[in-house]
Every structure is written in structure tokens, then in C-alpha cells.
Design a protein that fits this description.
The complex is a heterotrimer. By secondary structure, chain B is mainly α. Chain B has 6 helices and no strands. The longest helix of chain B is centred in the last third of the chain and has 29 residues, at about 125-150. The relative contact order of chain B is 0.14. Classes of the chains: A alpha+beta, B mainly alpha, C mainly alpha.
Chain lengths: ~425, ~180, ~220
């Protein structure tokens, strides 16, 4: 960028004229002398332009794949590799928007002779996602500070923070997935919990499934066949349009972050139950993983949740076209797929999506982080609008988990009690 | 690009925006020295400069540039008063350099606090900057005093006046 | 400032600087050659006049400079996490604009009134036995709510003398009172338990005092 005047010494010329003028008018040589000092500073202020810096910038992280909540030490070193003296520099590091620098600020003021370097160290607390550092912001000034220049320098640094998404072992899922077509009880014998039939023991059958009563009665070894349950197909759909990025207080997590955390917990628990789980985002940046099972699938899901742009703590760029998106998700959803839709219900579009999916025959369950408060007229208005939406959705037969500040499992358990009434 | 930052309410974890303490203390000390120098030659001038020093200290304490400027103008008023009441040039020169330095440090303290933050590492930068401003002051005072000494015997105030006006015009033309 | 079309010194640095340099040169000569200084010496009165003129010009510069704000790059706060709006922030912004009293205020008030009416009608339908048409009629005619300021805002009616006086004393806009009372009224209606079967089971913990439901599903 071009250099510009800062107006820092504006007024000095006036002061000089005033002092010297009075000195001449009343013949006071001492005042004229004071004027000389002023002229010296005025010349200094007019001297030189804000330099265009030639810098070598280096950023190092103590850890580039931290767990959520870990502290990462960042060290930014700026070296003057040019010929000019950089007598007055302000440097601010472009901390990624999703991260917060704790403790010391990520900035410094430096005066660097050619070859000299300065370092600023700060700490960020890792949160889920892939975070890329923005440009380093630099201001240089001439020695008097009367001219200033703003430049940006890119230094590639990235940190990937992918959580394990521990599911609480007590996450109640039955209500979420079984009510209509969930884990369907089949007529196929196999493993399960309900008795189906018995057959002759074959080597390799699990000891647990040997019919010990029969063994005691007749001495034969036989194996219990249990009624096999077919796994449900569940798609976790996260609303991460720009409208969904809301938060009750700016310091805490926003609705999308909570939704993604919830999706992580749910998917771990569902996979643990043997369900086939898929993942999608209602977002300008496309994200889709078709339902599947198995360890490799679980790892993929975890990676996507942890690092895909659609699940980031800041909104994705680009415009969201609901009709296009809806057609795509409709084609992707298999007929029997159930949808767990995670959305703060911050506008009508989310509710409409739920109703349309429901109308297309999918079992829709909304898990809605509640971020509304009562601090202002607007937030009170938003609470009423959201509660009205919840009421309408429930009347339309769509199940809703209204998730306040309590742990997810508490909210789901409460919702289940209501559904089973 | 913006001018003065509006006073946001302080939120948890916000960057410390208070003026840098080193430069702020330097500014207050130098304003006090300027006052002391004037006290040697003129009570009235010293009184004005003292008020200026107080105002400047308040301004730099609360990070208000306009108050700092008001204090600095009062110091200039003190200098003029001392000159009008017939002060000798030497203490006046020292007081002038100290007054400019006090203003500059106050402005630097506020600007640094605002843009870089009170906790950031700025010590080296601040000392380099202060040394530079001081050097400019000493150099120009020396030139001025040299001229004064050279012309003390004769009468050519006209010459000095011509030099000064010429310099002011040239400098303002190049701004 | 400088006229760059001229050649020579003037063209290079402009008239002002040139005259300055001429002044400096004559000053240097006057210092060295005392005869020149003597030739240049001017009447005392003239010197005083020049001094006074310079001092006045100086005062003008200084007072002018007080209006010159500092210009500097603002870095923003990259250290802080990006902040997202609170739900309803757009309503707060609209409210602020509607109360600002400039040209667009009336249009913002109209938009706000539409939003508030929709909410009021929906709440009335949900919580009373009115159907939509009756609820809309009650809101638009000013029969609901009973609070006159809220009713005046929602029905676009006249504010009573009492409300105007209160607004004047508080140095507030009547609309500020109307909007605030409107949300109060709608909230009170929504949180009331007149229709038990339509009880909402939201987990909003912040306003337990208005939530009289006997059993909330959360322990």
C-alpha cells in the first residue's frame, strides 16, 4: 500500500510561527532560539518516507495437531533483510479467526536495523477444525512518525485440531432412531437379543450363545439363534449456513460448533450401536459422506467433522441456494434414511427443510442448540420466534430435542420422555 | 484505516489498550523537567508550564490525545511567557527540547497502547524512538545556540529572522 | 501546490520553497557580510508588524491543526475469536435505526411493526382461542394488547398524551416505549399457561418467573 500522512506533527509550523513572531515583535532573542529548535523538529518531520520493508518472517508452532483445549505456543520472528533502517514498525500476527490468543497479544513494536530480528511469542487455545493463519499485518513509519505505510505479508501456517468425539456411554439413542423404522427387528436368525430358534453347534460359535440349559438336559451342544436386528441408516445433517452462526454470548461456543460437537457424539454412539451413519451439511460448501459402517468409515467421518470447511467455527464463504441444495440432498438420501438435523432454528429455512424432508418420508429428528437469550428486545423476539417454530414443528409430527445449556444426553433424555408419553 | 478508536466497553480477554507505561512515565518526567527549567528564569512561565504538565499527565494517563495536546500548548504558553518576561536563552532551550520530547513520548505511549497494547514487548522500540527525538532536539538546539553565540556581539537579528522564516517556509512547502 | 509545468528551480520545488530558499540565502549572506545586513535592516516598527503578523498566522495554523485528526491504520483484533451475532441481532439493529429519527426511520418502523404483528398474531392463535383472522383483527385494530403504548405501536395508532409526556420526560422516542411494551405483552402472553395442551417445553432457564408450567420436562 502507498504511504500516507499521519498528521502527527501537524500544528508544529503554527507553533513555530507563533513563538518566533512574538520573539521578533518584542525583540526577545530567546524565543527566536526556541523557534530554531522547532524548525529542527519540523525538518525532522518532513524527512523521509515510511519505508517499504523487506522482511523475512518465520512462524513456528509448538504443536500443529493439538487436541481441543490444548495450548499452542506460537512464535513469530521478523527479520529485516533489506538495506533500510526500519526505525518504527508495528507488527500484528494474523491469528486465525477461529482461534483466540490468550495472555499476551500477538503484536509488537520494533525498530530493526538491517539484519536485525525481533520475535513475539503468544499462545492460542486450540479449538476443533483446520485453522490457517492470515497475513501478518505490518505498519512502518518514518523516524518522526509523520508518514505511515501498511503492508501485509503471507506466511503459511496451519494447525489441525481433530477431536476424538467421545460419546457419553449413556447417550440415549433409542428415541432418536427407532420409533418408526429405526433398528428394524427382522425375521432373520443371527445375533441379537431376542430368541429366534436353535440350531446345531458349529465350531467357532460364541460361547455366550451356546444353549447351556439344553446341554444340561440332554448333553448336546447347540447354539441359540437370536432375532437379528437390522441397523438403521441415519444421516446427521448440520445446518451451517451463515444464519446458523449465532451465539448467546460471544465468548462461548456458537450454535454451529455445538451442532458439530453433538454430531460427533451422536455419530460415535450410533456407530457403536452398529447403525449405518452418514454425514451432510446444509452449507454453501458441499459436504457429503454416504451412510456406511466400519472403522474406516468412522475415521473418515471423524476427519470430515473435524476439518471440513462446512463444519468450521466461522461461516463458509459463498452463497447458499436452498433449492439446489435441497434437490441434491434429496437425491443423496436413500428412501429409508432417517435424518438427525442439527440446527439452531434461527430462521424459517431450517424449519422448512425439516418439514420438506419429513414430507418426503424421512424420519426427521431436530436437535436444536438454543442460543436465544433475554438480554435485548431482539433476543427476546428471537426466543419467541424460535419457540413458535418448535411448537409448529412438533405439531407437524417432527420430533425436536430442544438443547439448552445442559449436556446433550440430558436434553435427549428429556425429549425422549416427552415422545414416549 | 481509521482515526481515533471509539471507546469500546471492556470485555473479558480484550487486549489491554492502556498507554504504554514506559513512554507515559517518560513524558511526565520530561514535562516536569521543562517546568523546572522555566522555574529558573520565570515564575509565571513555570506556573503555566506546570499546569501544562499536569494536564499532559492526565491526558496520557487516560489515553486522550486531545488532552495531551492541550497540555503541550500550555507548555508552549509557558515558554512564550518566560521569553516575554526576558528569560535567558539557555534554560529556555532545554525547556523547549524537553517539552517537545514530553509531547512526543505521550503521543507514542497512547498510540502504542492503542495499536500494540500495553502488555506487548515495546521497550526496545520505545528507547530507540526516544533517543532519536532527543538527538534531533539537541542538534537543533546546538545549531540555534551556535547562531546565537555567533551573532551575540553584532546586531544581525535580521539575519537570524531571515534564516528562520526561510526555513519555516521551506519546511512547510515540503510537507 | 507547486506548479510543475515551469522549468528551473521554481518548476522543481515550487514558488513557496523557492522564496524560502531565497530568504535563507540572504540570511546566510547577512550573517557573513555585515554590510549586507546593515543594508537589509528595516525600521523597528516594520519588524514588530512582521512579528505580529507571523504570530497571528501561527495562531491560525495551530487552531486549524486541532481539527486535523490523526490518521493511522487500524489493525482490528485478530487475536480475538471472530464473533457471531446473537439471535435477534437484526431486530435490535432495526430497532436502533427505527429510533434514530433520520429519513429511513419510518421505513424501519414499518418493517418492525410487520414483524411484531406476525409474532403477536401467532402468539394469540397459539395461546388463546382466536383464529388467525380474529387475532390479526385484534392486533391491527388496537384491541390487543391492553397496554396502550404497545397497542398504539402494533396498530399504528396514536400514542396517548400520557405516553408522550413520559417519553418526553425520559427523552425517549414514543416508539421506544411502544416497541418495548409490545415485546413485553407478546412475551407475557406466550409464557402464560392459558392453554395447557399447547404448553411449550422449551428449556429456557432464564425466565423461570414467567414460566408457571407445573411440569417442565427437565429436572
Amino acid at each position: 500500500m502507498r504511504a500516507f500522512d499521519t498528521n502527527r506533527w501537524v500544528g508544529l509550523n503554527g507553533v513555530i510561527l507563533l513563538v518566533v513572531g512574538i520573539g521578533i515583535a518584542i525583540r526577545a532573542p530567546a524565543l527566536v532560539l526556541v523557534g530554531v529548535v522547532g524548525v529542527g523538529y519540523a525538518a525532522f518531520a518532513a524527512f523521509g518516507d515510511a519505508p517499504e520493508p523487506t522482511l523475512e518472517i518465520d512462524r513456528t508452532l509448538s504443536e500443529d495437531a493439538p487436541d481441543p483445549g490444548d495450548e499452542v505456543d506460537v512464535s513469530l520472528t521478523v527479520r529485516n533483510v533489506g538495506e533500510t533502517w526500519l526505525s518504527d514498525m508495528r507488527i500484528v500476527d494474523g491469528v486465525p479467526p477461529g482461534l483466540e490468543a490468550t495472555g499476551r497479544p500477538a503484536r509488537m513494536a520494533a525498530a530493526l536495523a538491517p539484519g536485525e530480528a525481533a520475535t513475539v511469542e503468544y499462545t492460542v487455545t486450540a479449538v476443533r477444525g483446520e485453522h490457517t493463519w492470515k497475513d501478518v499485518r505490518i505498519v512502518t513509519r518514518n523516524p518522526s512518525g509523520s508518514r505511515e505505510r501498511y503492508v501485509e505479508r503471507a506466511v503459511e501456517t496451519m494447525v489441525r485440531c481433530i477431536p476424538t468425539f467421545e460419546a457419553g456411554s449413556d447417550l440415549p439413542l433409542r428415541g432418536l432412531t427407532t420409533q418408526y423404522s429405526g433398528r428394524v427387528v427382522t425375521d432373520v436368525g443371527g445375533s441379537g437379543v431376542e430368541f429366534h430358534s436353535t440350531r446345531e453347534y458349529r465350531a467357532g460359535d460364541p460361547v455366550k450363545r451356546i444353549d447351556w440349559n439344553r446341554r444340561a438336559r440332554t448333553g448336546e451342544l447347540s447354539t441359540l439363534e437370536l432375532r437379528e436386528e437390522r441397523a438403521a441408516t441415519v444421516v446427521l445433517l448440520v445446518d451451517s449456513r451463515e444464519e446458523a452462526y449465532v451465539a448467546r454470548n460471544t465468548a462461548g461456543q456458537n450454535a454451529v460448533e455445538r451442532s458439530v460437537d453433538a454430531a460427533g457424539q451422536l455419530f460415535t454412539a450410533l456407530v457403536g450401536n452398529g447403525d449405518r451413519v452418514g454425514l451432510g451439511a446444509m452449507s454453501p460448501s458441499d459436504c457429503w459422506i454416504a451412510p456406511g459402517a466400519g472403522t474406516a468409515h468412522g475415521v473418515r467421518l471423524r476427519e470430515q467433522l473435524g476439518s471440513h470447511q462446512a463444519f468450521a467455527s466461522t461461516p463458509s464463504d459463498g452463497k447458499f441456494y436452498w433449492p439446489l441444495w435441497f434437490n441434491r440432498i434429496r437425491r443423496r438420501l436413500r428412501r429409508d434414511a432417517q435424518v438427525v438435523f442439527l440446527t439452531p432454528l434461527s430462521d424459517q429455512t431450517a424449519a422448512r427443510t425439516a418439514r420438506r424432508l419429513d414430507a418426503h418420508g424421512h424420519l426427521v429428528t431436530i436437535v436444536s442448540p438454543n442460543e436465544t437469550g433475554d438480554t435485548s428486545i431482539g433476543s427476546r423476539f428471537a426466543r419467541l420466534e424460535r419457540e413458535l417454530q418448535l411448537m409448529r414443528l412438533r405439531r407437524a409430527g417432527i420430533r425436536v430435542v430442544d438443547w439448552g445449556e445442559e449436556p446433550l444426553r440430558v436434553a435427549i433424555a428429556a425429549a425422549e420422555r416427552r415422545w414416549s408419553r | 484505516m481509521s482515526t481515533e478508536r471509539p471507546d469500546d466497553e471492556l470485555v473479558d480477554g480484550e487486549i489491554d489498550r492502556t498507554p504504554s507505561p514506559r513512554s507515559a512515565i517518560g513524558a511526565v518526567v520530561l514535562a516536569a523537567i521543562a517546568t523546572a527549567m522555566l522555574a529558573l528564569v520565570s515564575i509565571e512561565g513555570a506556573a503555566l508550564a506546570f499546569t501544562g504538565a499536569i494536564v499532559l499527565s492526565v491526558g496520557v494517563r487516560f489515553g486522550r490525545l486531545r488532552i495531551v495536546h492541550a497540555g503541550s500548548l500550555l507548555s508552549v504558553g509557558g515558554l512564550v511567557t518566560a521569553g516575554v518576561t526576558g528569560a535567558t536563552p539557555e534554560p529556555l532551550l532545554v525547556a523547549a527540547v524537553c517539552a517537545v520530547l514530553a509531547w512526543d513520548l505521550a503521543e507514542t505511549a497512547i498510540e502504542l497502547g492503542d495499536r500494540v497494547g500495553g502488555d506487548a514487548s515495546t521497550a526496545r522500540f520505545e528507547s530507540v524512538h526516544a533517543a532519536m527525538i532527543l538527538a534531533v532536539g539537541i542538534a537543533s538546539a546546538a545549531v540555534g545556540y551556535g547562531l546565537y553565540a555567533a551573532t551575540a556581539g553584532g546586531q544581525p537579528t535580521t539575519a537570524v529572522v531571515l534564516l528562520l522564516f526561510g526555513a519555516v517556509i521551506v519546511v512547510s512547502a515540503f510537507r | 501546490m507547486a506548479d510543475r509545468s515551469r522549468g528551473g528551480l521554481v518548476g522543481a520545488i515550487g514558488w513557496t520553497a523557492t522564496s524560502g530558499i531565497v530568504l535563507i540565502s540572504s540570511g546566510v549572506i547577512a550573517l557573513i557580510v555585515s554590510e549586507f545586513a546593515a543594508a537589509l535592516s528595516v525600521p523597528e516598527v516594520f519588524l514588530s508588524l512582521v512579528g505580529a503578523f507571523a504570530a497571528i498566522q501561527g495562531l491560525r495554523y495551530v487552531s486549524g491543526a486541532r481539527r486535523a485528526d490523526r490518521v493511522r491504520t487500524s489493525f482490528g483484533d485478530p487475536e480475538r475469536r471472530v464473533t457471531v451475532p446473537t439471535p435477534g441481532a437484526e431486530i435490535d439493529e432495526k430497532t436502533a435505526r427505527a429510533l434514530r429519527g433520520d429519513r429511513s426511520a419510518a421505513s424501519h418502523r414499518r418493517q418492525l411493526r410487520t414483524r411484531f404483528r406476525e409474532l403477536a398474531v401467532a402468539a394469540l392463535v397459539a395461546r388463546t382461542d382466536r383464529d388467525e383472522a380474529a387475532a390479526r383483527d385484534a392486533v391491527e385494530s388496537g384491541r390487543w394488547p391492553t397496554d396502550t403504548a404497545a397497542a398504539a405501536f402494533l396498530s399504528h395508532g396514536r400514542f396517548s398524551i400520557a405516553i408522550r409526556a413520559r417519553a418526553f420526560l425520559r427523552r425517549q422516542s414514543v416508539y421506544a416505549i411502544g416497541i418495548e411494551r409490545s415485546i413485553d405483552a407478546i412475551e407475557a402472553l406466550w409464557d402464560s399457561t392459558t392453554v395447557q395442551t399447547k404448553r411449550d417445553t422449551s428449556s429456557n432457564r432464564r425466565r423461570p418467573q414467567t414460566r408457571l408450567s407445573p411440569e417442565d420436562s427437565h429436572e
